[in-house]
Amino acid sequence: MFKATIADVAVFRDSIIAIAELIDEGIFKITKNGMSLLAADRAMVSVVDFKLPATVFEEYKVEKDQTLGVNISNFVSVIKRAKPEDKLTFELKGNTLEVRMLNGGARKFVVPLLDIKGEEIPPIDQLAFKAKVKVKVDVLKSGVEDANVVADTIVFHANDGTFRMNAAGDISSTELVLEKGNDSLISLEVDGDVKARYPLDYLRKMIKASKLSDEATISWAKDYPLKLGFKDVDKVEMNFILAPRVQDD
């Protein structure tokens, strides 16, 4: 048995929309601690790690751990129908998930559950990074969109006092620089001089999760996966892992 009600529609809707940018089908794990999803995109270039604690829900009942295989594209179409003032109720019924939108009246959608084979994804908490920065989301979005104007990859570069995002194409180049002490650079931890390149098409999709938090945490190392995280304490946590684009700078 699983039944849950959430009043903060925006948190759930924005989370599912961000997941749908990368994942077609996924398995949500339901435990007494909350709802989570860990899935890789079909190309195995990126991984989504989503956690929604039970405390976010007004009502949360689960008798035993459950897995819900869902077509994410279909699910997001349903969730987008919720209005800001609605309450969302989820109830497991056989091989379906009933989604009710309550606000005076009640609207109901029935979402079929899929038999999806679980993926073997290495634990992302075992990744060891050489650089970690926390920045204001608006600055990260600006840097990524600036880079997209001139190239299809972006370089993240950090040393003891500076964080840079830069990109160069055949004609133009761009750079965003944040020095220690800048209000938009919340924290900077780095071991040496650390630089790596990543594909912009994936990063632009991941940044759709920026609605979940005012801050973003970026962790990376040379020729190593990047971790991009958005967290609203006690509400939601969304982390992405992205494979590097290895080439000569």
Strand arrangement, major sheet: 6-2-3-4-18-17-16-10-14
CATH architecture title of the largest domain: Box
Residues in β-strands, percent: over 45%
- By CATH, the topology of the largest domain is Proliferating Cell Nuclear Antigen
| Averaged pLDDT | 95
- The rounded Rg comes to 19 Å
Q: What's the β-strand tally?
A: 18
**Helical content (DSSP H or I, runs of 4+):** 10-25%
User: Main β-sheet, in a few words?
Assistant: 9 strands, antiparallel
Number of domains: 2
What does this structure look like?
The protein is α+β, with helices and mostly antiparallel strands. It has 2 domains: 2-112, Proliferating Cell Nuclear Antigen; 128-224 and 231-237, Box (Proliferating Cell Nuclear Antigen). Helix content is 16%, strand content 47%. The protein has 4 helices and 18 strands. It has helices spanning 9-20, 72-79, 137-150, 200-206, and strands at residues 2-6, 25-31, 34-40, 46-53, 59-62, 66-71, 87-93, 96-103, 105-112, 131-136, 153-158, 162-168, 173-179, 185-190, 194-199, 215-220, 226-232, 236-242. The strands form 3 sheets. It has a 9-stranded antiparallel β-sheet. α1 runs antiparallel to α2 and α3 (137-150) packs antiparallel against α4 (200-206).
Topology of this structure?
Blueprint: E1 2-6, H1 9-20, E2 25-31, E3 34-40, E4 46-53, E5 59-62, E6 66-71, H2 72-79, E7 87-93, E8 96-103, E9 105-112, E10 131-136, H3 137-150, E11 153-158, E12 162-168, E13 173-179, E14 185-190, E15 194-199, H4 200-206, E16 215-220, E17 226-232, E18 236-242
Antiparallel strand pairs: 1-5, 1-7, 2-3, 2-6, 3-4, 4-18, 7-8, 8-9, 10-14, 10-16, 11-12, 11-15, 12-13, 16-17, 17-18
Helix pairs in contact: 1-2, 3-4
